[in-house]
Design brief:
The chain is α/β, with parallel strands linked by helices and about 220 residues long. About 55% of the residues lie in helices and about 10% in strands. Helix 2 packs across helix 4 and helix 3 packs parallel to helix 5 (about 90-105). The radius of gyration is 17 Å and the shape is globular.
Length: about 220
């Protein structure tokens, strides 16, 4: 069982992915963390995130242990992540890790929830259920500003909103795996939904999908 969750920044997909993973007993991979880890490696080495050779080398060096670094959540890292994410060689270098995680979760779980930008379109096109989580840029900027303040970082709403719009534009307009809902994704707008309501709507969709699945072929 694979659940693919895509959507723009601060749409609520991370929270939803974690809750769905817990509910179904599945592993969870926040694939944005991989792009953030590439960006952090490039920035820490004094490199330019737009330099394809440097970014691709960093992508080749990323390991699961990188995902625990608290610096991944910093805003400059998020911006650099969307720059390295537009480089096809970076996406290619991270592909096998993501597909491997989905096919054979490291903890032996019977499946996985992956959240990102291209899970339903590129990484797991045959996923059991695909969700595309969205919300207005203003609602998302409010949430991100609150998260940053709670983490002790100063956050000015207008600046967060502008950064988010810049990143949305880069993610949606790039040629390699742009941010777009898969044709068969359930689009969920969380602008006026809290985490519980978003979870309930997502769960109802997934349960409908599971009920509609053809039974396993007779042995
Ligand atoms: O947490 P937030 O939604 O702000 O961002 P993230 O999911 O951590 O992703 C950071 C950046 O990585 C995004 O802006 C995308 O450019 C890139 N990304 C991607 O291209 N493909 C993915 N599957 C996940 C993230």
């Amino acid at each position: 069982m694979i659940i693919a969750i895509d959507g723009p920044a601060a749409s609520g997909k991370g929270t939803l992915a974690r809750r769905l993973a817990r509910h179904f007993g599945l592993a969870h991979l926040d694939t944005g963390g991989l792009y953030r880890a590439v960006a952090l490696r490039v920035l820490a080495g004094g490199g330019n995130p737009a330099d394809a050779a440097v970014a691709a080398a960093a992508a080749g060096a990323v390991a699961a242990g990188d995902l625990a670094d608290p610096r991944l959540r910093l805003e400059p890292v998020a911006q650099a992540a969307s720059v390295v994410a537009a480089i096809p060689a970076v996406r290619q270098a991270l592909l096998a890790f993501q597909r491997g995680f989905a096919r054979k979760p490291p903890g032996g779980e019977p499946g996985a929830v992956l959240d990102g930008r291209d899970i339903g379109t590129v990484i797991c096109p045959a996923a059991t259920a695909k969700l595309f989580i969205t919300a207005t840029p203003e609602a998302r900027a409010e949430r991100r500003a609150r998260e940053l303040r709670e983490a002790g970082e100063p956050a000015i709403y207008e600046a967060v909103l502008q950064d988010m719009k810049d990143r949305d534009a880069r993610d949606s307009q790039r040629r390699a795996a742009p941010l777009v809902p898969a044709d068969d994704a359930f689009v969920l707008d969380t602008t006026t939904l809290d985490a519980d309501a978003a979870f309930a709507a997502a769960l109802a969709f997934i349960e409908r999908k599971l009920a509609a699945q053809p039974p396993a072929s007779p042995g």
